Automatic annotation (TrEMBL):
Pfam families: Sigma70_r2, Sigma70_r4_2. Residues 7-69 form the RNA polymerase sigma-70 region domain. It comes from the Bacteria. It comes from Streptomyces zhihengii. Keywords: Sigma factor, Transcription, Transcription regulation. Belongs to the sigma-70 factor family. ECF subfamily. This is RNA polymerase sigma-70 factor.
Length: 311
């Protein structure tokens, strides 16, 4: 097998490692490409190609994450990971674990960790790398890596929900949610939301966005029921789709361009968090991106007309 074939066979794994460390599709793809360039330029063949490539992409991702921290601190409004509609790395025996580790909730918990803690956690807990491999990857002793993992686990466990719905229950809840959303059914929405539900939007200052998270079943239900039927009237459509291994939907304008993504987190049979990614910089990997400002203006005009106001 040649270099290209070996690399392409491992590309899904490399992307999945980088994405979990970075929370960015674009940055993960760049890290994978840089890994290829270093592999292609290497004059000798590594003993284990998988170990060499995994270590290389992890080190690149750590460097990128360290530089990205400053940008994220200056980010306008809440920062959410770039939505991932499909994880290219498939392992049927560990499908549920892989889906859990790529959820937006898990990626946001990973944001609490230092770059080294995050990398050790991803390599060990998600991809089951040995401590000897992890130690050589991050340049620390095995004992130090074990300590990094202990700290990472503690931070992750502190933020994890007590109980999450199973896959079938999540899908049924999402189906009812999107039906109520499209109908503007306040009561129907309220009945599906937890009392302390949060609606969080990520526009990055580049698209219409919530000034802050909206909290509480009544507030969230009324906001959603007031906005989404108006969006349907200006020909916005949506298709249910898994987002980061959880129920969600892709919203598009009348030309079929991606407007935004909704992702749902469930807890105890209710929707706990609704995350909306509308920052165009985070949607380009999904296809042509809509002009969210233009859609927002059209929605506002439609609302004024419905209320009997003037143009």
């Amino acid at each position: 097998m040649g270099k290209v074939e070996e690399f392409e066979e491992l590309r899904p794994l490399l992307f999945s490692i980088a994405y979990r460390i970075l929370g960015s599709v674009g940055e993960a793809e760049d890290a994978v490409q840089e890994t290829w360039l270093r592999f292609d330029a290497s004059p000798t063949r590594p003993v284990s190609v998988k170990a060499f490539l995994s270590a290389t992409v992890t080190r690149i991702a750590i460097d990128v994450l360290r530089s990205a921290r400053v940008r994220r601190e200056e980010y306008v409004g809440p920062w959410l990971p770039e939505p991932l509609l499909r994880d290219p790395y498939e392992d049927p025996a560990r499908a549920a674990e892989l889906a859990d580790s790529v959820s937006m909730a898990a990626l946001l918990l990973l944001e609490r960790l230092s770059p080294l803690e995050r990398s050790v956690f991803v390599l060990r807990e998600v991809f089951a790398f040995g401590f000897d491999e992890i130690a050589s990857t991050v340049g620390r002793s095995e004992a130090a890596c074990r300590q990094l993992l202990v700290r990472a686990r503690r931070h992750m466990n502190e933020g994890r929900p007590r109980f999450e719905a199973d896959r079938r229950e999540r899908q049924e809840l999402a189906k009812r949610f999107f039906a109520a959303l499209s109908q503007g059914d306040v009561d129907g929405l309220r009945g599906l939301l937890s009392a302390d539900v949060q609606l969080v939007g990520d526009g990055g200052g580049k698209a219409p966005q919530l000034a802050r998270a909206v909290v509480g079943a009544e507030n969230v239900a009324r906001l959603l029921a007031g906005v989404y039927p108006l969006m349907m009237r200006v020909d916005v459509t949506f298709e249910p789709h898994e987002v980061n291994g959880r129920p969600g939907a892709v919203f598009r304008d009348r030309e079929g361009k991606v407007l935004h993504i909704l992702a749902l987190d469930m807890l105890d049979g209710r929707i706990q968090t609704i995350r909306s990614v509308i920052n165009p910089d985070k949607l380009g990997h999904l296809g042509p991106v809509a002009d969210a400002w233009a859609v927002d203006r059209e929605v506002r005009r439609t609302r004024r007309r419905a209320a009997g106001g003037s143009e």
